[in-house]
Recover the amino acids of this structure.
């Protein structure tokens, strides 16, 4: 009787654990192999809407990714749209829910391309603020805003800049952006 | 790198176990996303303490290694489970066919993977281990042996590593059965 009891308990436990759809590595990396996750990034730049959406964000394949956040020594969120690239660097080796602010006090930083010109954090009041509101299963979501300065003539380190702070990024949001290792 | 400090420890444990009693098994990871893994190998020390004419309580310490296909020994998974089980022979003699549920803890779990950017990802975990097995106990030249097949699952972080194992071992017992 007791042997039957132990066997039934073990069989049920194994059955239930085997129903877990992910392997331990996939669960730890937050990789969903069963469902498609749509990642999005939207913002307005001087009133012009930029919208990027990737249907199956966890499987963007090798090579160029349209929208992800890559971990190296820091975390780099990058997106590609028809108007150009959008990049923000989270200067941390351990990304968490919270606010990440980059100001021109840290030095010039490229953020995006708008109307064919690079837009940098450069002017004295320029900044980019990213708020990560959720970080779940290897995907981040949140919102952002910023103020940038256009590069009139590129020639780093001697770029010629336009009117400081003349480019505004508003109503920025990102959802389900996958963290890529 | 797969051959990190803990991996080295696990490998040394694997070799020690093999050297100690040559109790070995071949294994295959099953379930989602396991096609990238080659056939794995396990080595273990297992001992039984008779608690009745038909049954033993068993203790098993193992080391299981699964290498990823196409990467030699650079990437893969290592687990070192410590398990307790209840081995029950169906004919009630302590010999012949048996069934054995086991429960335990994964002392060391490491999975090393290549990232898309070319860097190594080393994941470390522990977790509960559950197994259900069946086998056949027999003797060769007076030495008791155990041929067994089992299904095992390690659970951690909301996921599970599952594998099927076919093994053979020489039985180590710290007590003679009363009927012997």
């Amino acid at each position: 009787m007791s042997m039957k009891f132990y066997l039934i308990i073990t069989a049920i436990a194994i059955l239930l654990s085997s129903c877990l759809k992910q392997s331990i590595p996939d669960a730890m990396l937050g990789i969903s192999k069963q469902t498609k996750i749509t990642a999005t990034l939207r913002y307005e730049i001087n009133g012009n809407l930029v919208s990027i959406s990737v249907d199956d964000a966890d499987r963007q394949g090798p090579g160029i990714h349209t929208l992800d956040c890559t971990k190296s020594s820091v975390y780099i969120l990058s997106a590609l749209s028809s108007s150009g690239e959008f990049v923000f660097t989270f200067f941390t080796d351990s990304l968490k829910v919270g606010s990440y602010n980059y100001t021109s006090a840290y030095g010039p930083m490229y953020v995006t391309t708008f109307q064919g010109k690079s837009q940098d954090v450069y002017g004295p009041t320029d900044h980019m603020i990213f708020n990560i509101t959720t970080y779940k299963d290897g995907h981040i979501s949140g919102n952002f805003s910023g103020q940038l300065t256009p590069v009139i003539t590129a020639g780093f380190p001697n770029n010629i800049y336009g009117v400081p702070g003349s480019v505004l990024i508003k109503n920025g949001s990102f959802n389900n952006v996958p963290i890529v290792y | 790198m797969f051959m990190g400090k803990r991996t080295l420890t696990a490998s040394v444990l694997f070799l020690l176990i093999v050297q100690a009693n040559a109790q070995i098994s071949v294994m295959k990871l099953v379930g989602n996303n396991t096609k990238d893994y080659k056939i794995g190998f396990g080595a273990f020390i297992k001992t039984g303490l008779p608690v009745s004419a038909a049954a033993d309580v068993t203790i098993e310490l193992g080391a299981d290694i699964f290498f990823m296909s196409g990467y030699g020994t650079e990437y893969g998974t290592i687990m070192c489970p410590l398990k307790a089980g209840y081995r029950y022979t169906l004919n009630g003699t302590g010999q012949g066919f048996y069934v054995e549920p086991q429960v335990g803890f994964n002392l060391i779990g490491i999975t090393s993977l290549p990232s898309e950017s070319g860097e190594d990802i080393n994941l470390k975990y522990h977790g509960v281990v559950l197994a259900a097995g069946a086998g056949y106990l027999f003797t060769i030249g007076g030495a008791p042996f155990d041929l067994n097949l089992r299904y095992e699952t390690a659970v951690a972080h909301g996921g599970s590593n599952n594998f099927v194992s076919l093994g053979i071992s020489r039985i180590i017992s710290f007590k003679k059965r009363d009927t012997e």
Q: What stands out?
A: Residues 2-18 of chain A form the longest helix (17 residues). The mean pLDDT of chain A is 86.
